[in-house]
Amino acid sequence: MPEVDGLAATRAIRRWEVSNELQPTPIIALTASALEDDVRRSLDAGCDRHVSKPVKKAGPLAAIREATAVRGPTPGSEPQKIIAGTEQRADVSKQVA
């Protein structure tokens, strides 16, 4: 998208969903960045998950499964990121101060 980056597009989608009283569409950020600040920016923009490249098939599939299992945030849930090339999950909220 030459005029809008993925985070701006995600924010626009989330505003549109709210204004039209729609359930959130699952959005997964797929990026080369694994820096905690970038993960936080993705999640703050409204992405449900953040997957860092390079990836193995299991990572994006797990993110898709998780993002489509629950629509929207659930009380007490913490945002998660998929750690590149693994099945591990990291609790991002406790890593970013």
Structural description of this entry:
The protein is an alpha/beta fold and 97 residues long. The chain has a single domain, classed as Rossmann fold, CATH 3.40.50. Helix content is 41%, strand content 14%. It is built from 4 helices and 4 strands; from the N terminus they run H-E-H-E-H-E-E-H. It has helices at 6-19, 36-45, 58-69, 92-95, and strands spanning 28-31, 49-52, 80-82, 89-91. The chain has a 4-stranded mixed beta sheet with strand order 1-2-3-4, with helices on both faces. A hairpin with a 6-residue loop joins strand 3 (80-82) and strand 4. The radius of gyration is 13 Å and the shape is globular. Residues 83-97 have low confidence and may be disordered.
Q: What would you give as the CATH superfamily?
A: Response regulator
What is the CATH class designation?
Alpha Beta
Oligomer: single chain
Using the coordinates shown, work out and report the CATH topology: Rossmann fold
- Major beta sheet, strand line-up: 1-2-3-4
Q: How far do the termini sit from each other?
A: 32 Å
Note the total helix count.
Answer: 4
H/E series, N to C? HEHEHEEH
Summary keywords:
41% helix; four-stranded mixed beta sheet; alpha/beta; 4 helices; Rossmann fold; 97 residues; disordered C terminus
